[in-house]
Design a protein that fits this description.
By secondary structure, the chain is α/β, with parallel strands linked by helices. The chain has two domains: about 5-190, no CATH class; about 195-260, no CATH class. Helix content is about 45%, strand content about 20%. It has helices at about 5-10, 15-30, 80-90, 160-170, 180-190, 195-215, 215-230, 235-240, 245-260, and strands at about 35-45, 55-60, 65-75, 110-115, 125-130, 130, 135, 140-150. The protein has a six-stranded mixed sheet, with helices on both faces. α5 (about 180-190) packs across α6 and α6 (about 195-215) runs antiparallel to α7 (about 215-230). It is globular.
Length: about 260
């Protein structure tokens, strides 16, 4: 699934964000107890000191004040460890108010949903916590996770687990093929309703404008990949939108099929 399509599925959809977080937390910790009170997509954290500003795919806060930053990365290069470190620091900026003591700082999670197995160890989720000399936890309560959306598993009866079904849904842009109800419903609103299709056209037009403004080949190729994975768009349409040749678009489509 394209990053663009996934971002729009989560937009103004706290129920879906909460569901995804609980499935991941259940997988990692054996329980999913996340109850969200705030959810934003493409949340801007502007730097006032000349540092790099960030835009988070999904930012959420739960009833225990725990903070979550979900990042959907079709390309694993967008999920580097130093990006995780930086994002973890950014979402903590307003965690301690003037006059507060540092222990009030809530736990925070930076969660990358990667299109490929980032560490190539075949695990469902890679959990990163700071340790002291590799002996015990540092205790800062910042957790970085890499969720492997390629992961698939089945129980003893041959039924696909809920976690595996959700990972499957991160890899399809067709709502009819999605296995989890909330993902299928969110995808259907964007693809199967007139308002949803019109909205996605507006999003694509905005993306096209950004590509033309940047005029960099790698940006055009990334947008072309996203459009191909959205489905139902011809190579001619994508070539005109991105100003790439039809041969290049066809090559990108072929490489995506090979990657599957």
């Amino acid at each position: 699934m394209s990053d663009i399509f996934m971002h729009e599925m989560f937009k103004d959809n706290m129920e879906l964000t909460e569901y995804v977080l609980n499935v991941v937390m259940e997988r990692v910790y054996g329980k999913g107890d996340v109850e969200l009170v705030q959810e934003e997509t493409e949340r801007l954290n502007a730097s006032l000191t000349g540092g790099k500003s960030t835009v988070h795919d999904v930012y959420a806060v739960d009833t225990e004040r725990r903070k979550y930053n979900l990042e959907v990365q079709q390309d694993n290069s967008g999920a580097s460890p130093k990006r995780g470190r930086y994002y973890g620091n950014v979402i903590d900026r307003d965690g301690v108010k003037e006059g507060d003591e540092y222990p009030v700082l809530p736990a925070s999670y930076v969660i990358f949903f990667t299109g490929k197995d980032y560490y190539r160890k075949g695990r469902a989720v890679y959990v990163v916590n700071r340790t002291v000399d590799d002996e015990f936890r540092y205790g800062d309560e910042l957790t970085i996770m890499y969720v492997n959306t390629e992961f698939r598993e089945y129980d003893a009866d041959g039924n696909e687990t809920e976690f595996s079904q959700l990972m499957h849904d991160f890899h399809t842009a067709d709502p009819a093929e999605m296995k989890t109800p909330l993902m299928r419903e969110a995808g259907g609103r964007l693809k199967n309703t007139e308002g949803g299709r019109r909205y996605m056209c507006d999003i694509m037009n905005e993306a096209f404008a950004q590509v033309r403004a940047k005029a960099k080949d790698e940006d055009k190729r990334e947008i072309a990949s996203n459009l191909i994975e959205m489905g139902n768009l011809t190579d001619d349409f994508i070539a005109k939108a991105t100003e790439l040749s039809k041969d290049v678009v066809a090559s990108i489509r072929a490489s995506l099929k090979t990657a599957e």
